[in-house]
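Submission sheet (multi-component)
Chains listed below:
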Amino acid sequence: MLPSFIFVSVWLAQAAGALAAGPQPWQMNFQEAATPVMEDIVSFHNLLLVIEIIIVLFVLGLMLVIIVKFNSKANPVPSKTTHNTLLEVVWTVVPIAVLMVITVPSMKLLFFMDKAKNPEMTLKITGHQWYWTYQYPDNGDFEFDSNIVDAEDLEKGGKRLLEVDERVILPVNTEIRLLMTSDDVIHNWAVPSFGVKMDTVPGRTNEAWIKVTKTGTFYGQCSELCGVNHGFMPIRVDVVSKAEFAKWAAAAKIEYAAIEVAPKTESGNLATSKKLANTAKAIKLVQAAAHAPALVNMKGE
Amino acid sequence: MSELAHAGADGGHDHSPRGWKRWAYSTNHKDIGTLYTCIALVAAIVGGGMSMLIRLELTEPGIQFIEDFQFYNMVVTAHGFVMVFFVVMPALIGGFGNWFIPLMIGTPDMAFPRMNNVSFWLLAAGLVLLVTSTFIAGGAGTGWTVNPPLSNADFHPGMAVDFGILALHLAGASSILGAINFITTILNMRAPGMTIHRMPLFVWAMLITAFLLLMAIPVLAGALTMLLTDRNFGTAFFSPEGGGDPIFWQHLFWFFGHPEVYIMVIPAFGVISQIVTTFSNKPIFGYLGMAYAMSAIGFVGFIVWAHHMYTVGFNVETRAYFVIATMVIAVPTGVKIFSWLATMWGGSIDFKTPMLYAMGFIFLFTVGGVTGITLANAGIDQAFHDTYFVIAHFHYVLSIATIFAIYGGIYYWLGKMSGRQYSEAQGRWQFWITFVGVNVLFFPQHFLGMAGMPRRIPDYPDAYAGWNMVSSIGAAITLVGALLFLWILYRTVTAGAPAEDNPWGEGATTLEWTVPSPAPFHTHEVLPEMGDDMQPAE
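Outcome: structure written.
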């Protein structure tokens, strides 16, 4: 990959603005924060990073002094000092003080991110090998599956390994409770810009929350090893205005209900036909994996 | 190997077996130590080869070589197992421990020589089982944490996971027997005058490590057995369908798994302490603080396990406790770092290859340590959990720091073990190549992790291409360093200059430098007296 290509794409990505979040080439920092939790994570990390860089530079500095002053040529006769009570107390107490400084914002962040205070809606997320099911219990209780889009089916500008066929649509500036579970192995639903990363565990329901403050597109990936296609169950969330979301939800309720009703009238067994549809998708994925070179599309964007 | 010739000649006098029987039936701590070192070298080639395969696949986005993703997951899993159980532990504990504990405390051999033999062969059998598991039914693609339900019979129906479980059982039994041997030897067989508070810090480190093994491994063994019966006999310890809980497994695994990281790094602390004091020509600074800092790290290491599980859905108070408990470990770790620096301060330092590795260890362990502080905070861990940031963190403290201690320890003791001294110029080259390589390899992974790249994926979104390429170039440089090391090792044992009994001068005050090089088959047949000038005096 040519460096010029990389830098051009960095500029292009920056020029495009915040609309398409997700990782950028040569990125050295967090993805753009889009929730209060992620903003707090970023600012706490900025504090930690300063403290840690000071510690590392301090140790490095001492080592450089040692290398210059106490090599066998510069200092042929070693001292015999093996104790200095004051020094030993200082290097025990100062780290404790530093840790206490860290603990305060750490605890604030931890308790703030724990649970939604006044959730306005709930999104239920179920992990499967290897796709996600999203359910909107407060907006008509419809649900749909979200599968990866293969490299060869990507639309122009689509991000390889991050695009899905059915996106999650969520309203901006709305406190949303996320309920997560799994029906096979442990997965993990993670969207870096939201500061959310939660295991979906079979037999348990885990809770997280988001309040996205920006409209736009946000990407994530499964973050717990879940089998063969662990790397191929991405997450895409499109955050829209509340009005647009209401419109979408009303339409989605009919659309996804229609999809579910159709096979039901034919076969009379909704569960079986849904399972068949999912199996078909899984087979498609496995086939895609088997013909992996077809996935190679380095400059997909 | 010349060492064999020397020791073999001595062995003749002592009516010990010759040829293959000498090794297969060995009850001699030096021979068993050599066997452990050799098995670690073989496993390092296997595990290192696997890591190169991973980096080759990740060099560019898209699928390069590994089209079967189960194979990729298997390689990731086996790389972890091999490196933890069959490289780092055998090299530091089985290898250096067996060779130098009896020499350092002034005793002829380990307390239970025959058990020592069993201990080694259990480990060898474990390695065979583990390698076998990679060829069965697509291998175990579970990650080294073997989390159910992925590792149960529904999702890994073949025998691969069972073979893996049995491999760990054998390696664990080997470790428990080894730990019993070390504890008994160190507590009962020290030379007259060597009180607990006068033992070299390497001996302290091994004593603490042995206690950690003795308490942590049985928990792993219990968990593995439950997984085995879940898989084969219809129990449901970890299956929610039968009233079990997959998180229960993670508690048990990490109750073992966290002490395990100290089992790997505390012996490395011991090696580094010996090297630093030797080449600084100065007694260790704050000896008691160092010994009890290691003890404190070992103790606190048992009550922080759930910091590996911040995203499983704990209640917030539980996470708060584990944040604070985890950060406490930074205090004794800081004591160690500063005490090493204070030992060097005012010293007359000889920057030979082992010392370069020790200084590399101290600096890079600090780098890996501060990212550990980052990860200890459950709030921030929500951003970093299961990303490449975690990979960067634990490879800084394990792959870099403990491997530096192994490299450094081999350079430090090779003369005593083989009777031949490595070439200083070659050793320094090998250090600098490795130092540059590992940093180019692992530092960019911090950036990948911050940008959100998940672990254990065979292909990644195109935006992560740049730093992955840099990381793979670093892997190639590290590989050059590793190959150069093997060559230096080969040249040293076949054609190195004869080693003096004490090649390091006045700084080397521990008892292993009082016996000839190579150390004869039997040493300390007359118990040494601890003179007042013998390190360490507290």
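Remark: Strands of chain A lie at 121-128, 131-136, 142-146, 168-171, 175-182, 187-191, 196-200, 206-211, 216-221, 234-240.
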